[in-house]
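Quick bug: Phosphonate ABC transporter substrate-binding protein output formatted oddly.
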Amino acid sequence: MLKKALLGAIAIGAMLAGSMARAENLETFRIGLIGGENEADRLRNYQCIVDQLPKVLGVKEVKLFPATDYDGVIQGLLGGTLDAAELGASGYAKIYLTNPKAVEPILTDIQTDGSTGYYSIMVARKDSGIKTLADMKGKKLGFADPDSTSGYLVPVTSLPKDIGTSVKEYFSETGFGGGHENLVLAVKDGKFDAGTTFGSGVGKFDEGYSAGNLRKMVDKGVIDMKDFVELWKSPLIPNGPIVVRSSMNADTIAKYKEYLMNLPKTDHACFLAASSNGGDRKGFTEVNAQFYQPIIDARKAQIGG
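Here's what came back:
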């Protein structure tokens, strides 16, 4: 047993040493892409980052790792196999509650109205006859992903105040759509009576708002907002962070952060494309763990981490 423990300690030490060496002499910068949107679209939208970033960071290459769901990226960041990613606030909270030193939030989006928040939005098919939240009583509600802030955490914690009871009691059934885009398509196809996704809340619902999943799907021609009705909108949610692996050297983090901060001016098209939010936004602003404390607290209380 002692021998096994010693070998285990050596193995862990070797992994830590390897991680430190990688952080100091990075050759490949690995970016995780959360699931829920067509993989080909995600890879195409981030190609400009793949092309530009190696020269900025002084690395040989940038690799993208699209996951099938949110947790794939979360586990990659926790395991140190990813260097950066854009997350929702609840996804970051999950990492923080598991290991607060695993990643560092550095930036978040600024909406066109200057806010740093967005909304969970419940939508239904317009031709379903469902026009209000009250009409959803006893109906089937879809969520985007169990690690989504707007697609799960905020609805299950905020809806009870508006429906007067728990989500479980109010709706006949709930389920997950496999990410925001897939969830909205599931509502469109009648698999759910309504579903929760996200939007900036700025501009017109009929256009998918100025940014968010609905706007992204409209811009891609996947949906027409004339087919949907908004049933419910949450309180304002903190925009999700871009995070980096904390063990990466400070110089690389600083270069990556500066590159992203300048991107709206240096390549506005790339700035708009390489984001899960879609639509128009002003730019980035700096954030830290404290910015997400309300979401961390909510996740801890609701699902324990």
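Actually, after a second look the formatting is fine. Residues 71 and 147 are 7 Å apart (CA to CA). Closing.
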